[in-house]
Amino acid sequence: MKLDRTSMLYGTLLLTGTGIAGQFLGFVYRILLSRLIGAEIMGLYQLIMPVYSVLLSLTAVGLTAAVSNLSAGYYARGQRGAAAQVLRRCLLCFLGLFGVLATVTALLYDPISVYLLGDARTQMGLLLLLPCILLTGVENLHKHFFYGTGAIRPPAAVELCEQVIRAAAVLGLLVLFLPQNPERTVAIIVVGMIVCELFSSITLMLLARRRLAGEKLGEPGASRRMNRQILAIALPVGFTSLLGNLMGSANAVLIPQRLVAAGAEVSRAMEEFGVLCGMTMPMLCLPTAFIGALGLVLMPKLAQGAALGNTPLIRRRIDRSMLATSVLMFPAMALLVVVGPTLGQLLFREEGVGRYLLPLSVGVLLSCWQAVLGCALNGLGRQKAAARSSILSGGLQLGCTYLLLGLPGVGIGGYWVGVVASSALGAFLNWFQVRRVTGLKLRLFDWGIAPGLAALLTGLTGNLLFQVLLDSGVGEWTAVGACTLFGVVLYLAALQAQGVRLNRLFRLR
Q: Per residue in 27-64, pLDDT tens?
């Protein structure tokens, strides 16, 4: 059978394949990076990344959602010139916002690094982030234009090339110029990021111009209405992303500070922060490449359904998306809990990578549900509802970090409590709003019980097999591969035995 290139399944599979390849390359890149620079400098690098996220939230995130949603709606109604006009307006708005914020950041980089980030060694990297943010914003606006108009292949190919270029540029520069002091090492990493973003932004801009060649920009009388539509989407999405990233930034800054308050040395606190956020969480988030791809495809598809007033289609797409999320994430988390400690030692040469994998895996699973349901709300035009749940869940995470990590004897272990609690709250609030808007019924067995029981069986049996293989003298990599293969087969058999129809996933439209 020929796969429909306009379907959600095609777009999701294409972006998932690209995402998996990109995640693999990124993971290898992170392993080599951590070995080159060490846990402390990895912690410094993680400190400046929240600034990157905050500035993108203030400038580009809301506008990318507007480009994706409005382009999807206009294309569904055959108004391609209007879609081109949306992209142009959002680009101009982004450049204006970036100019203001870049000026402020350049003037205040010293107090930002010293008082907000808590480490003066981040100053040079902070300044170099500005051109990187400019290029990333231009890239993301064009990328979401392609997603909204159903052209998945150009951004997917560019994304994969970007991962290769980033790894080559950053690692190559580090090999050439190390050893350096920590501040310059972080700056070298950011320069490598600029190189890959330059490639991505220019390539996508040229491809978009080619796609829009000959298209008229729409009716002049519709300009004000289009501006209102852009603002109605961009403001709540951007505000939500801003608050979420501000809370995430505060959370990242608080982790080493609260560990010090609990009695840890500064260098030790930074190392634990680097291991947790630079190694453990990225390893657990490897399988979420599918969720990111699904969200990118789901939001414009739901916007199309909303533009056409097709509520049954909307409910079906959300149902299939939740089923796909559960069926894929449950076994992935179960297998990572089993082989994660060994993988952490093999890949990162850090024993602490395997700590708290079980509770953190629960938090990652809940966050995937929250993300998919949040994309559904954004696609349905309920950005304010998604904003409320995101802010409340982020606030809970921040509160847990501040209260628990500063307690003697708790330390970094308090982090997982906040991850699980905040993700559970966000998933529940998003589901409540989705059900209210669409009338979709909760499919508790298909979405939770069946894949959960199958994953539990997979995890317990896989753990037994893994230990037997290791005790028998089988190599660690061989044991990981055998356990993974056995776990996948067992999981699929357990799902089938419970009557979960996996063929529904292949009708994801």
A: 677 777 777 777 677 777 777 777 888 888 888 888 88
- The tokens of 353 are what? 């990578």
Measured CA to CA, the distance from residue 342 to residue 356 in angstroms comes to 14
Name residue, tokens 């409320």.
Answer: 388
DSSP secondary structure code for residue 264 in this structure? -
Q: What is the pLDDT of residue 2?
A: 45
Distance separating alpha carbons of residues 231 and 469, to the nearest angstrom: 58
Sequential DSSP letters for 164-221: HHHHHHHHHHHHHH-S--HHHHHHHHHHHHHHHHHHHHHHHHHHHHHHTTT-----GG
Residue 299 confidence (pLDDT): 72
Q: Are 304 and 72 in contact (CB under 8 A)?
A: yes
Rg of the chain over Cα atoms, rounded to whole angstroms, equals 23
Residues ≥6 apart with Cβ < 8 Å to 506: 9
| Rounded Cα gap, residues 45 and 60, in angstroms | 22
Q: Examine residue 261 and state whether it is found in any structural domain, yes or no.
A: yes
**C-alpha torsion sign, points 465, 466, 467, 471:** positive
Question: For residue range 459-501, what is the model confidence (pLDDT) as tens digits?
Answer: 899 889 888 888 888 888 888 888 888 888 898 888 888 877 6
In a domain? residue 197: yes
User: Smallest Cα–Cα separation from 169: which of 138, 197, 201, 206?
Assistant: 197
Distance between CA atoms of 400 and 417, rounded to whole angstroms?
Answer: 7
Nearest one of 250, 463, 272 to 355, comparing CA atoms: 272
∠ CA 144-131-27, nearest 5°, is 65
Residue 204 identity: L
CA distances in angstroms from 114 to 6, 111, 118, 133, 246, listed in the order given = 50, 5, 5, 21, 17
Q: What is the pLDDT of residues 195-236, one digit of tens each?
A: 888 988 898 888 888 877 655 555 544 577 777 888 877 787
Q: How many helices (H) and strands (E) does the chain have?
A: 18, 0
* Mean pLDDT across 20-24: 65
Q: What is the maximum span of the chain, computed from C-alpha positions, in angstroms?
A: 75
Q: Which two tokens stand for residue 447?
A: 């979405």
Q: Which residue, 118, 98, 359, 127, is CA-closest to 254? A: 118
- Range of the structural domain that residue 275 is part of: 8-507
2 inside domain: no
Is residue 1 domain-resident?
no
The least confident of 129-138, 234-243, 414-423 is 234-243
Task: Kindly report the three-state secondary structure assignment for every residue of 435-474.
Answer: HHHHCCCCCHHHHHHHHHHHHHHHHHHHHHHHHHHHHCCC
- Counting Cα atoms < 13 Å in the Cβ hemisphere of 52 gives 19
Q: How many domains does the chain have?
A: 1
Q: Are 392 and 371 a contacting pair, CB within 8 Å? A: no
CA dist., res. 412 & res. 272, Å (int): 8
